[in-house]
Design goal:
With 295 residues, the chain is an alpha+beta fold. The chain folds into two domains: 145 residues; 133 residues, Aminopeptidase (3-Layer(aba) Sandwich), CATH 3.40.630.30. The protein has a twelve-stranded mixed sheet, with helices on both faces. β2 and β3 form a beta hairpin. The longest helix is centred in the first third of the chain and has 15 residues. It starts with a strand and ends in a 7-residue tail after the last strand.
Amino acid sequence: MGWQTTGDVAAFRGEAGAFLRRERARNTVLLTLTEQLRVSHSRGAVADAGAADPAGLPLFGWWAGDGGEAGGAFMHTPPYPLLLTAVTAGAAADLAAALAGRPLRGVNAHPETARRFAAAWRDGTGCLVTPHQRQRLYRLTELAWPDPAPDGAPRVAVDADAPLLAGWFGAFAREVGELTVADHAAAVRDRLGYGGISLWQAGGRPVAMGGVSRQVAGMVRIGPVYTPPELRGRGYASAVTAELSLRAREAGAAEVLLFTDLDNPVSNSIYQRIGYRGVEDRVVLTFSAPEATGR
């Protein structure tokens, strides 16, 4: 049957939800982002940025086999890269054809799937493909608290923390090289609405933060985790991550996950020390027009 697409997040969850939940760890971003969109839509907070241009609206899709069941899925929320599950080479090429004409800045997928899709997209558009980031997905096994523990204690962030948190969200985004300029204030408001940000406080002030997604399919994802540069090396990030991980487990999450940048050995080491183990790698590839390079 091939690729089926929709702009309706509820319809997408109905068709692809069972497939995504079967491997909830590998599909954590699709599951948590579609849950976030579902909540936003239920509150009437629907973005109108694409009203004049349908290509600017979110698009979702699933690969339906002969039996009609989903065997792959994607999500594209401009201007972010396409988010794609692992699919066959043929399905990746078919998706590139199905999305022809849609403005794509890149693809985020399992390395082999990302390369297959990027090759088909390059063949169809003549774009340049550039590696942007290598990521590793980690799963919490046995939680180990930082030893020695840093000074201070955790607390759940409140509305009064919003200006500080928006600045830290922005600083984190710049540091990891995010491809888009996001509305960090809106992201903070959303997280605060369900207690999704914790702070580590020492010396009477916040010194680090950590966020956590809403629980969906028995799974949550930690992130972002941020400590200002001048306060690093004191164990604050490890402590706030451990606190969030414990709270997630106590809230009933069977899977507690997080992503790291593979080019950042410090963060990878921190998370492994407190009990996280690798699940799989992903890659973000960006697409650009040849003339944009000046060649």
